[in-house]
Every structure is written in C-alpha cells, then in structure tokens.
Amino acid sequence: MAERFTATYRIETPESPQAAAEAMAGEQSASTFVDVPGQTDDLQRRHGATVVDVTELETTTEPTLPGVDADADEYTRATVQIGYPLDNLGVSVPQLRTTVAGNVFEMQPLSGVRLMDIDVPAAYGSACPTPQFGISGTRDLIDVHDRPIVGTIVKPSVGLSPGETASLVETLVEAGVDFIKDDELIADPPYSRFEERVEAVMSVINEHESETGKRVMYAFNVTGDVDEMRRRHDVVRDAGGSCVMVSLNSVGLAGVLALRRHSDLPIHGHRNGWGALSRCPSLGFEYTAYQKLWRLAGVDHLHVNGIRNKFTESDESVVASARAVQRPIPGDDGALPVFSSGQWAGQAHDTYEALGNVDLMYLAGGGIMGHPDGPAGGVDALKQGWEAAMAGVSLAEYATDHAALRRSMEAFGDDE
Amino acid sequence: MAERFTATYRIETPESPQAAAEAMAGEQSASTFVDVPGQTDDLQRRHGATVVDVTELETTTEPTLPGVDADADEYTRATVQIGYPLDNLGVSVPQLRTTVAGNVFEMQPLSGVRLMDIDVPAAYGSACPTPQFGISGTRDLIDVHDRPIVGTIVKPSVGLSPGETASLVETLVEAGVDFIKDDELIADPPYSRFEERVEAVMSVINEHESETGKRVMYAFNVTGDVDEMRRRHDVVRDAGGSCVMVSLNSVGLAGVLALRRHSDLPIHGHRNGWGALSRCPSLGFEYTAYQKLWRLAGVDHLHVNGIRNKFTESDESVVASARAVQRPIPGDDGALPVFSSGQWAGQAHDTYEALGNVDLMYLAGGGIMGHPDGPAGGVDALKQGWEAAMAGVSLAEYATDHAALRRSMEAFGDDE
C-alpha cells in the first residue's frame, strides 16, 4: 500500500462511529454518491482513505451541532483516525488543509467534528518552507538565552501616530524589554503609514542598540496583500528590523508561504480569528493540529494565549497549545510559543511547571505599563518572577529581597 | 465624526448586551485593560469603535459556548451593530477581517458571537479588486443566457489520470454541459500533474468547440502557493481555458488577492472548510458576511450548497447565502452563486422561487451521471426542470412530454 499519513478527529454521530468514520474517509478521498465509470477497485485501493482507528467515548442524548437526524436515541462520541494516501495530494500545505479539514466539517452524519491532530508526513518536512529561525534563531537575534523572551504590545492598539509609537517604544526599550510588537489592529492605516512607523520606531531601536549593545526585536505587522507584505518586509529589514508579524487567519496559508519564501526575518504569527475555529468544543480545530499547518508554511512564533488569560480559553487548552508549538514536527525543532493576555509575574511558576522549559515569549501589557514603579519596574518584576520559578522558589519568598516583584504583587496579586 | 462602517453580530452574554457590545467595540479598537500615556480622549473620539445598535432577543439558562461565567441566571441573546472608524484600517481586505472578525470571537463576556453582516465601505468597492467577470462576464464566456449555467464535477474526486479525466470530460461535453470543475481534492498530485491534466482536458474542450461552436467552461483547481497559482493560471489561459478554481479557506485572502491581480479568467471560489466557521449557530460567520470578503478579493463564483443537499446545511441557510451572493456590494453587481450537492431537476422550482432569477450555476453529479439514459439524459433533464420552473409549470406536468425529465423523476423522484 502506498505511503499514508493520518489525521485524528473527535466526532459525534447518531450512527456507529465506525460507519461515520468510513463516510468521512470516503468523502475526503475517492468515493462518490453514485457509481461512475472510472471508479474501479484498483483506484479505490490506491486512492481511498482508510479508517485506521475508532475509539468510542461517551454518548449524549442531544446532537451538539444541528443538521443531522435530531430524533436518534443517542449520539456517540469517538476519536477516529483516518489514513490518507500521500499520493492523493502530494506536497502542498493548502491541499493538506483541504484534504484533512475541508468538506468533512459539513458532513452527514456528524453532529460533532473537530480535527485534533495531523501526523505530518516526512515529505512535508523536507519540501515545505518550515520556520527559518524557530526558537534558537530567535534567541540568537535578541541575544537572550536561558530565560523567556520578555516583551509587550504597543497600546492603545490603534490611533498612535508614528512619532507617538516611537516615543512609547523609547520608554519600553529603556525599561529593558526584549521584544515589542504592533497590535494586530494596526498595519498600514492612514494615520500611521507603515514606512513612517518603521522609520520612527527603528530609529529609537537602533539608537538604543548603539548606546547599550542590546538589539530589541520589534514585530512590525506587515499583514496585507502579498506584494505589500513582501515590500513591507524589505522596509523592516533595510531599516535594521528583525521581525515581521502577520495575522495568519486574515492572510491565509498561501500568503504566509509567499511571505516566508521571500523573508530574511522571523515571522511572528498572530492568530486573531482563531476563536471562530475553536470555541465550540465539538467543531473546528484543536490548536495542536492547526498550528502545524502554519509551521509548515514557515511561521516562527505562534500565539497561544496565556494562563489565567482575559479571554475565554481554559488554562488546560493554553498549556496543550504551547506544548504542541514547542514539540518538533518534520522540518523543525519546534516553534516559539507566545504567551499573552493578562500576564504578569504571577503566572510564571505555573507556566514553567506546565512546560518544563523557558523557550517562550512572555508578553505583558498592563503587567509592564501598569507597574507602580513604571515600565522598568514591570520588566524587572517579570524577569524576577521567572527567576523565582526557575529556581524553584515561591513568588512570595523571592519577593522579600526583590522590590520590583514585591511591588508587582501588591499591584496585580489579586489576579494570581 | 470620521467615516465609519458597521458590522453586525449576534451575541449571547451573561451581562447586559449593551455592556457586552461596548466591550467588543473597545477590544476591536482603541481600548486597553490599563490606562497608557497615549490614550487620550481625543484618540478615543477619533479611533474608538462605537455601539450603533443593540436589539435584545431571547434568553437561555445555559451558556452556549464555554469560557464565560457559568453560574449566571440567564444569558441574553442580542443583535448588536458596531461602528468602526474606516481610518483605523484604511483599505485592506485582510485588515478588514482582523478588525471585524479577530479577537472578538474569544472575548469575555460572550457565550455566543457570530458575525452576521458587514456594511462594506464604498472606499473598498473602488480600491479592492472585486470580481472581474461576475454574473454577466461568466455568462458571456459560456454564451448561456436566460437560464442557469448547468454543470458538473469530475468524479471520482481523486485518482483519475489526466487521460481518464479527459475521457470523462469528453462524455460530459457531448452530454451538453456548460461547465465542469475539478474536485477540490485534486490540484497538482503526482498521479495527475496540473499541466498534463490541462493539456488533456483542453484538447477535448477545444475540439468540442471547433466541432460545435460551444465553449464549455472548465474550472481547473489551481489551489497552491501564490507562484504556483499564477503559473497554473497562465497554463490554463494559454491552453484556451476560461476559468480557475481556488479553495478559499485553504489559500486565504492574500493568496486570492494575488491570484486575482494576476488573473485574466473568472475565479471559481470553493468554500471547503466553511463548516468549521459556520456550523455552530452561535459562533463564527454567517455566509452573508463571509462571502463579502471574498468578493472584495475578486472571486466571481461562490459555492452555496443546494436545496435539500446531502450535507448538514438547512435550505433556509442555503437560500439566504445565495441571495447574499447575488446582491450587489460596493464594487460589483453581484457574484454568481454555485448550487451543488444532491442536485437534480427536483430542486429547480424551489430554487427559482427562492431567488426569483436564474443567475446561478447548477451543478449535479449523480443527477447527470446517474440518469437512466446516461449523461445526455441527465443534462437534458436538468434543463427541462428549469424550463418548467421558469414557465411556472409543475415538474410532473412538464414531464408528460419531456422524456428526459420523466426518466429523471423515475430515478431520483424520492429525493424531492
């Protein structure tokens, strides 16, 4: 039998999970509703997807999603694994998405269907762009090793002029951050044209580097048309910048692939819009599966939300996502998970315990800007929180002789 | 106040819908969790999104989506309209998506959030590519007017060699179809390289044209990297082909924009993966909103499923989608809705009644290939079904002196 790769789904169905899985395999490969002349046994053998495994889980008495038989006695949940012939698509990230995550979401008889994981074929690892910098390449550019990369986001999200942005960046680089990013809501609006913003911001960052030797990474949001993204990438690179950011769901796989093939810089992947694909637990994608597509396309940094975040995602999901981002797949040694949303030193211990390493970006907005002693205190407090976590010392104990951390706990301690 | 455009959402929340809507407006524009130096009243006035309307709907006692306060007494559903300053983003289709459909899906305090519609700003109509052919341009290329464009999909979806595909295409063009498309599962796999398939298929189509004068439109699936899509487009055009197909969700907005800017041919938009964004009624997108993004990017034909389809979508939703695709937005006169899945003459009356016009593609697989008299009988039956619908004559009455339709009803009548 020709080479196959598998995708794993969690489904719910009024029929037997085995029958439903066979329907999925048929729909996403060689079957049709009617017999057609070319549909031979030989073609089915070569190109038919197969059911590799079915593991039944619990049952429910109501269908979770509409559109299936609503009068069944019960709906069985199951984990099913489908094996796809690699030859059906060859190497193509967009076609991989269509094959494992196309019409399957609308299929009868599924009252639940979520893509949990993709076992990426080795051929993709060698033929796809994959991350150009990843964890170690990003660390080298910032020259931060053996601790998380500490960063922040320019706020307000929209409305600051290039000069106002640069002025905030000056405060932030002086405070000691390693990394700063544009908000996803700003790309090239009339009030802050991309080139002007890059010029204003990089002038601050370059001057800071020449004074201190520290090169802060700024992720400029290049999101746009392909030609725009490539041109903006060049503007960033030529100004001495070291990172470009892109809104993955707004640009799409082909756009990110085009940027990656052109890029000399790490690609910071923002996942805004991800909630639409993930918030219904019985539909869409698990991030474990989804983030693999973007890594094949060449994204270096991937947002994962944060422990005790201000959005709706559970800590369990955040941790599973971050672990998945760090885990190597064919073609890379892992990508860099980016923690953000409501982060301060208070989540350092739990984050460290969940991952067992410090290969991550740790972004704080209020945790830095809202520190009682100002941004420098905020950055110090974050670093001290992580020192405590890595040393296995409690936050409270470490705070006794670390003033910034202590002040931070007084300000944000309720969030812990 | 500067120019604004609105987006409409259906939400569910344990808080007051007004408060939830204000949180949405803040998150998607100028607000942050903490006060920062640049956040002035003036900035808020210029760049803050505003709540334009809140209409309360029913309440429920359980939250539909997880991640919000689960112990509230009730969760109120509402339709809310948010006004965004156009200046926040300028003209950019990817940034439009991030602005109206980004982090909002993961927001506290929303236990339901679905983007229902976007009031596209006029500036987008003049600056975005928009469809190059649309309804009338597509009709001109096929030379079919005053009735639906009747077509089919090559099946089996995967596994046919270029020669086998061409041989099936020969059968289909002789049967009288106007339009044929690749399945979304085939693009450029090792067993049917794109260029070879185009050469084999276009040789049949060109020969058919030179014999009969009829130029059948074939939508070749160019889905892939940007450079691949552009190159494949050229291969199709140079071989005399008249359409390219792309899997929208697998390629993304930037990829489709890049193809559109290069293209001399209509773009046939396949929406596989759409179910992940739409099947949970309290999450994701209504197609009315979603399809506008793709039309701004330049897609001419948009799949809408079909009445009494074999997937999970309701007829009500199919009809709403098709009407939305036909309705003009800034920059176009409407796009062409593509009906498919379990279609035969039996749905012609209901489809015609729902739309009030015949500006659509009507694709049938089994309805053509499975006709008792063969594909020619299938195509004749489809056309006769639509003649009956347009004449206001019942299918049964029209079938009395139209044999192909009669035989079709005998074969598929149970589906009606």
Give a description of the structure:
The structure is a homodimer of 416-residue chains. By secondary structure, the first copy, chain A, is an alpha/beta fold. Chain A is 42% helix and 18% strand. Chain A has helices at residues 17-27, 41-47, 93-101, 122-127, 134-142, 162-175, 194-212, 226-238, 248-251, 253-262, 274-278, 287-296, 315-326, 348-355, 366-369, 375-391, 395-399, 403-412; strands spanning 4-13, 50-60, 75-85, 112-118, 149-153, 179-181, 217-221, 243-247, 267-270, 283-285, 301-303, 336-339, 361-363. Chain A has an 8-stranded parallel beta barrel, surrounded by 5 helices. The longest helix of chain A is centred in the middle third of the chain and has 19 residues, at 194-212. The radius of gyration of chain A is 24 Å and the shape is globular. Chains A and B meet through α2, α3, α6, α8 and α9 of A and α2, α3, α6, α8 and α9 of B.
